[in-house]
From TrEMBL:
It comes from Streptomyces racemochromogenes. Keywords: Membrane, Transmembrane, Transmembrane helix. This is DUF1345 domain-containing protein. The chain crosses the membrane at residues 21-39, 45-65, 77-101, 113-134, 213-234. It comes from the Bacteria.
Length: 238
């Protein structure tokens, strides 16, 4: 058996595990922030730098609490992290609403800028909802690695690894039951991406009501962006 296979089969007490790396989440937040800053001013509900500045103010204490690994969590930390994600989601959905309104009622004739803005909103949608799923599932990224599995909150999503323990050996060795696998940010970004392209769950299923509501909202937003806004922009270009 290879070293990686052997390591995957070793179950470690969850409270002894290293927390998830902080950097990927920071990069995702900054990417969403920069995409928002690049939107046309008419799609923004406040002066261009107000919401990004507020997001940075929420992000800085989160980095201070867990600068490298997500291992510590307090009520304040949990509130700030969820508030940051909801702010990103809300501002992007608002931009989408304004974009659709401009398309329907303002007689927009600049197809190129409309197409670019629609793509920015769509990409931010993927990042924002990926962060939302990451923050909410099983109590958040800190709980998923630092809390014993039997004490975790009920799962909001069922990943394929959660049911692969009876598959062929090379698959079963990496399953949640065998290796104590837990999802990380990239897993939730993938869920968000597939939901935004297929407009429905693919290999990861929502279990809780809040997960289903979030996925439904994201699907509708992606559908509006992809079918209505981008289609109209392409027609204008012609």
């Amino acid at each position: 058996m290879s070293g990686s296979r052997a390591a995957a089969r070793i179950r470690h007490p969850r409270h002894e595990r290293r927390g998830e790396a902080r950097l990927p989440a920071v990069v995702a937040v900054l990417a969403a922030l920069l995409l928002y800053l690049a939107l046309p001013q008419k799609l923004l509900i406040a002066p261009r730098y107000v919401l990004p500045a507020l997001e940075v103010l929420l992000l800085l204490p989160l980095i201070a609490i867990n600068p490298r690994r997500l291992t510590r969590q307090t009520k304040v930390f949990r509130f700030l992290s969820v508030a940051l994600v909801m702010l990103i989601v809300g501002s992007n959905l608002t931009a989408l609403g304004i974009l659709v309104h401009e398309l329907l009622y303002a007689g927009v004739d600049d197809g190129r800028s409309l197409l670019v803005a629609a793509l920015q909103v769509w990409l931010t949608n993927v990042i924002a909802f990926g962060l939302a799923y990451w923050e909410l599932d099983r109590g958040g990224p800190v709980s998923r690695t630092q809390t014993p599995r039997e004490e975790l909150q009920l799962a909001d999503f069922r990943f394929s690894q959660d049911e692969n323990d009876d598959a062929v050996q090379e698959v079963a060795d990496g399953a949640s039951k065998a290796s104590d696998w837990v999802p990380t940010l990239i897993d939730y970004l993938y869920v968000s991406l597939t939901n935004s392209t297929a407009f429905s769950p693919t290999d990861t299923m929502p279990l809780s009501a809040r997960a289903k509501v979030l996925m439904a909202v994201q699907s509708v937003a992606a559908l509006l962006t992809s079918l209505l806004v981008i289609a109209r922009a392409v027609s204008i270009l012609r």
